[in-house]
Amino acid sequence: MIRRIYGPSNDDGSRVVRMACIWIPRGNAKTTLAAALGLAHFLGPEAEAGGQVVMAAADRENAGIAFNSAHQFVLQDDTLASRVRAVESRKSLGHPKTKSTLKAISSEAYSKHGLNVSFFLADEIHAWPTGEGRKLFKTVTDSMVKRSHPLTVIISTAGDGQGGLAWDLWNYSHKVATGEIEDPTFAPIIFAAEPEADWRDEAAWHAANPAIDAGFCSLEELRIKARRIEHFPAEIADFRRFHLNQWQEGSANPWLALEVYDAAEAMTPVEELTGRPCWIGIDLSSVEDLTAVVAAFPEGDGESRRYDVLPMFFLPEANIATKGEKDRADYMRWAAEGFLTLTPGNVVDHSAIVDHVIALGEKYGVQEIAIDRWNSTAVNTALQEEGFTINQFGQGFASMAAPVKELKRAILTGHFRHGGNPLLRMCFGNVVADKDAAENEKFTKERARGRIDGAVAAAMAVGRVIANEVTPSPYESREGGFLFI
Description:
Pfam family, one: TerL_nuclease
Number of strands: 17
GO molecular function: endonuclease activity
Radius of gyration: 27 Å
InterPro entries: P-loop_NTPase (IPR027417), TerL_ATPase (IPR046461), TerL_nuclease (IPR046462), Terminase_largesu-like (IPR005021)
Organism: Lutibaculum baratangense AMV1
Low-confidence stretches: 471-478
Protein name: Phage Terminase
């Protein structure tokens, strides 16, 4: 790790790397290492006059863990201790000779303007609040442009969910590591098992955890934990995340694997969908949650039927950062990218949903709209007044079994052409299905890990497609017409 960060240099001897992402499982002393790097920039070989070393985590208490490690380093050496002034109540160290400081900070970005940071430690970034975490990261890194050789070190285990700063950095790290992106100033350092590795394979444990071979991560404890959790899917997901460093997306007991969902055929270009018949599913939220509108454009029939889907999502803009943190979703970025419509206030604006459906009707051949019976009276009435055909769609096995079965067939064959919409992907990743005695499935929001509204709306749209499929009468295929007995 040290060589990868500090080794590459320019012709003048200056360090090439400006940002390093270290992804490593729990129990590998990553916070201790981070504390040592902070000290190197505070009063060690990387120190500079008036340096500002900042250690940040999900909250000030967690940031204090790295600070306390750094402070203990100092206290264990008489020479260092004599040169450093500590204010433990403020989690701050000062070096009077160089006027440098080392301090732990919380994730609230509003109070961090005016910094002039030379070294920034972002610890356990997977746990940072979605909204405030991104603001803090930008505030601190923006302050570093005043320095000639600043360094940001992100050190974390893999996270879960989709969207957010940690997800972006995880993806960027892998793209740089594989050569897809060329960025010599960015150092990705990844200790992780292969994505397809068996979580019980001890070779995968060794690959992800250098501390096992170094002797300070107990192999026996991992064995005990693995035996204990074998029949608990949620704990297996945590084991993969914290001990194999495998990013966990969606539900711990998912309806389908996201790698299967991602392997869909390319979507038909949107401009080529103009005028084509489509069926729409609307899953209305409670007053302040996510609402999904999904238009499904079928092509073909039977087992070869394909679906192009155009989803749009709606969310009240009030407290958007808090909602993103709760749902593990980067709603602000997705809104900026056009995947999400934010409506004014703190309750869902049904008129925006009606306007969107009217716009779809003006461009495409909307055949029918399936809408959840719950809380749909106002939207239902408004759309009927616009001349749309409405179908009140239940959420029980009777209504959902056939649509869910057809949706699964389309996804497994790559025929559900979703175009990579990130909100729709998040919803499918969160789906957990209930089964009845006959193995029929329906989506359940009660046991889902996060928002599944887009998946529910897609199932309703697909359900109306297959309900309106014209099948030949059995009498048309019988030779000689009716058979009388």
